[in-house]
Amino acid sequence: MTNYPTDAEARLALHGVEDARQRVIDQIGMPWWYWWGLAACWIGLGVAADVANEWVTLAALLTFGAVHGMVSSRLLAGRQRTMDVKVRAEVAGRRTPVLIFGFLVGLGAVTVAAALLAYADGAEHPATMASVLVAVAILLGGPRLMAAIRTDAISRAAAR
Amino acid sequence: MSVAEFDELIHPATRLSIVALLAAADWADFAFIRDQLGLSDSALSKQLATLEEAGYVTIERPLSERRRRVRARLTPVGRKRFTGHVAALRGIIANAVPET
Predict the structure, then answer these.
(1) A79 CA to chain B: closest CA distance, Å?
(2) A151: which of A92, A144, B38, B66 lies 20 to 30 Å off by Cα?
(3) Is the CB of residue B56 less than 8 Å from the CB of residue B19?
(4) Where do the domains of chain A lie?
(5) How far apart are CA B45 and CA B67, in angstroms?
(6) Radius of gyration of chain A from Cα atoms?
(7) Cβ of A155 under 8 Å from any chain B Cβ?
């Protein structure tokens, strides 16, 4: 005969379920090296734009785009921050790649705008200055963006 | 929408936590489950063996990785049972008579 729990026991069991789900949601994110690598590449491109000729800069930009495309195709969903667990797509949310891509496009626009401003101000290495500024934004903003995505995942889970 | 069905195999607290953890993931490493739930190796092995025997969980040992790993994954049957069990628990709470 099935021994059904009381409502208090059922509440406790559901609390355990939510706690376990929360532990997986906490794993949504990008590997630590992604933001550092991105920031380093951003500065490298900025330096190349200032000191190298246009073709070298273009080649560096295309190489960066290709490598980032390969890496991000596996990581951009934020489902595998570590090799310990792969978060389910519906738990991580479908918008994560779009948000990160939008973040990067926005940073690209900020880099160009900051470099133009620095150039107009007579700076000797405007692209380098702008890229360092944006690299800091990547290191500070990237993890914050992932934290916001985790908060969103918690809200969606609670609403179910 | 799953049918609410209480599952006695899943219900014990430790097993429910393991299944809930796996339900939110495509797969999870043995060490991850152990550390997150504060279990010993032997306790987790025992629970996973029970769930595997029931067809709720599959255990994988990827050979391609440098470190020897053991991964657990919820089967479609396990996922269905878990969803039904959670629905049953919610039903119990919803049908509870308020104390006067």
Answers:
(1) 9
(2) B38
(3) yes
(4) 7-159
(5) 19
(6) 21
(7) no
**B60 φ/ψ angles, rounded to the nearest 5 degrees:** -120, 145
Instruction: Check A20 against B36: CB less than 8 A apart.
Output: yes
- Tell me what pLDDT residue B67 has: 67
ipTM (interface pTM): 0.88
Q: Is A159 on the interface with B (CB under 8 A)?
A: no
Q: Hey, are the CB atoms on A87 and B26 less than 8 Å from each other?
A: yes
**pTM (2 d.p.):** 0.82
Delineate the domains of chain B, giving CATH numbers in brackets: 13-94 (1.10.10.10)
CA geometry: angle A135, A141, A142, nearest 5 deg:
85
For A91, residues 6+ apart whose C-beta sits below 8 A from its C-beta are A21, A24, A25, A28, A153, A157, B24, B25
B29–A83 C-beta distance less than 8 A: yes
- Which pLDDT tens digit goes with each residue over B18-73? 999 999 999 999 999 999 999 999 999 999 999 999 999 999 988 765 667 899 99
Say how many C-beta atoms besides its own lie within 10 A of residue A122's C-beta.
7
Average model confidence (pLDDT) across chain A: 89
